[in-house]
Amino acid sequence: MKIEFYLNSHLVVVDVDPMQSLLHTLRGTMSHTATKEGCGEGECGACSVLFNGRLVNACMMPISQVQGGDVMTLEGLRQTEKGQCVINALLEAKGVQCGFCTPGMVLALYALLEADPNPTELAIRTAISGNLCRCTGYGMIVEAAKIAAEKGEGLW
Ligand code: FES
Ligand code: FES
């Protein structure tokens, strides 16, 4: 089935099984490998992307549901000032260790700050509650969100 959608602001067309996940379409069919596969069943958030501006688990979304929609991944977000703000904050706070959760975390923090430019610690922890990190203990990622909010003042 031909599926047409916007990927990082570019119109793309793929011809795939309509039940193939968005994640496997991105990584396998399109060789966009920034989005990671962890659990493959909606539990870890490693595969987080934005779909029509909303944070979703790409492993749980059949590509047929993406028809006509707008997908943003780390490949696109890192080209933007806001994306760089989040990435730099994660680096500054040492919120990147093995890096496996990082693409999903960047998307989750971006989605949070877009909705709430001055989030409380509770709001930050709630926003990343669907994104598992085995390395950092989350404190450094929470700190990164605070840094991104502060340094990106006026950006969000
Ligand atoms: S790989 Fe999608 S939620 Fe874990
Ligand atoms: S940095 Fe290793 S899982 Fe988060």
Describe the structure.
The chain is an alpha+beta fold. It folds into two domains: 2-73, Ubiquitin-like (UB roll) (Roll); 80-151, [2Fe-2S]-binding domain (DNA polymerase, domain 1). It contains six helices and five strands; from the N terminus they run ββαβββααααα. The protein has helices at residues 22-29, 74-77, 81-92, 102-115, 121-127, 139-151; strands at 2-7, 10-15, 48-51, 54-57, 70-72. The structure holds FE2/S2 (inorganic) cluster (2 copies). One FE2/S2 (inorganic) cluster (FES) binds at residues 96-101, 133-136.
Summarize the structure.
With 156 residues, the protein is of the alpha+beta class.
At CATH level 2, the architecture of the largest domain is Roll
Instruction: Give the CATH topology of the largest domain.
Output: Ubiquitin-like (UB roll)
| Mean of pLDDT | 98
Fourth-tier CATH superfamily name of the largest domain: Beta-grasp domain
Helix content: 25-40%
Q: Into how many domains do the coordinates divide? A: 2
Q: Which strand-content bin applies to the residues?
A: 5-15%
The unique ligands bound to this protein are:
FE2/S2 (inorganic) cluster
The major β-sheet equals: 5 strands, mixed
Structural class: alpha+beta
CATH class of the largest domain: Alpha Beta
What's the tally of helices? 6
Determine Rg (CA atoms, Å).
15 Å
Q: Give the termini distance in whole angstroms.
A: 38 Å
The SSE order reads EEHEEEHHHHH
Across the major sheet, the strand order is: 2-1-5-3-4
Topology:
Blueprint: E1 2-7, E2 10-15, H1 22-29, E3 48-51, E4 54-57, E5 70-72, H2 74-77, H3 81-92, H4 102-115, H5 121-127, H6 139-151
Helix pairs in contact: 3-4, 3-6
